[in-house]
């Protein structure tokens, strides 16, 4: 996987049915290792280690109402008041951040 502009950390990667999987520390299971998932795991680690966000304050695939439609944020971290502190949309490192991606 590509090097990211985030701190590295020890990952647990395995192969199942010929497909690589990475351990998701929040869901406590292995998930498909896609470029987007690689970014998600690094962002979660960064939130926990660099900003001391407890795992209980981080949710993945979190439903977010937007313009009357239900969307999902890749990561939502909440503050001590349990209100959203940061909403993260993860993209593979190869995805250009154009207006369409930003609008998502």
| Spans where pLDDT lies below 50 across 5 or more residues | none
Q: In angstroms, what is the radius of gyration?
A: 14 Å
Q: From N to C, what is the helix and strand string?
A: EEEHEEEH
Largest sheet, described in full? 3 strands, antiparallel
Number of alpha- plus pi-helical segments: 2
Q: Give me the side-by-side strand order of the main sheet.
A: 1-2-3
Task: Write down how many β-strands occur, each being a DSSP E stretch of 2 or more residues.
Answer: 6
Judged by helices, strands and strand pairing, the structural class is alpha+beta
Overall average pLDDT: 91
Strand content: 35-45%
Large-scale geometry? globular
What gap, in angstroms, lies between the N and C termini? 24 Å
Share of helical residues: 10-25%
Describe this protein's structure:
21% of the residues lie in helices and 37% in strands. It is α+β, with helices and mostly antiparallel strands and 104 residues long. A three-stranded antiparallel β-sheet has the order 1-2-3, with helices on one face. The relative contact order is 0.16.
Descriptive key words:
three-stranded antiparallel sheet; 104 residues; alpha+beta; 6 strands; single chain
Question: How is the secondary structure organized here?
Answer:
Layout: E1 13-16, E2 19-24, E3 29-32, H1 35-51, E4 58-66, E5 69-78, E6 84-88, H2 99-103
Antiparallel strand pairs: 1-2, 2-3, 4-5, 5-6
């Amino acid at each position: 996987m590509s090097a990211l502009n985030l701190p590295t950390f020890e990952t647990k990667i395995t192969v199942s049915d010929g497909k690589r999987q990475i351990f998701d520390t929040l869901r406590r299971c292995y998930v498909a290792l896609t470029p987007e998932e690689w970014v998600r795991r690094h962002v979660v680690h960064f939130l926990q280690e660099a900003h001391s966000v407890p795992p209980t304050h981080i949710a993945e695939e979190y439903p977010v109402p937007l313009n009357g439609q239900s969307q999902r944020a890749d990561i939502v971290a909440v503050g001590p008041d349990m209100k959203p502190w940061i909403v993260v949309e993860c993209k593979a490192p190869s995805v250009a951040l154009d207006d369409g991606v930003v609008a998502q």
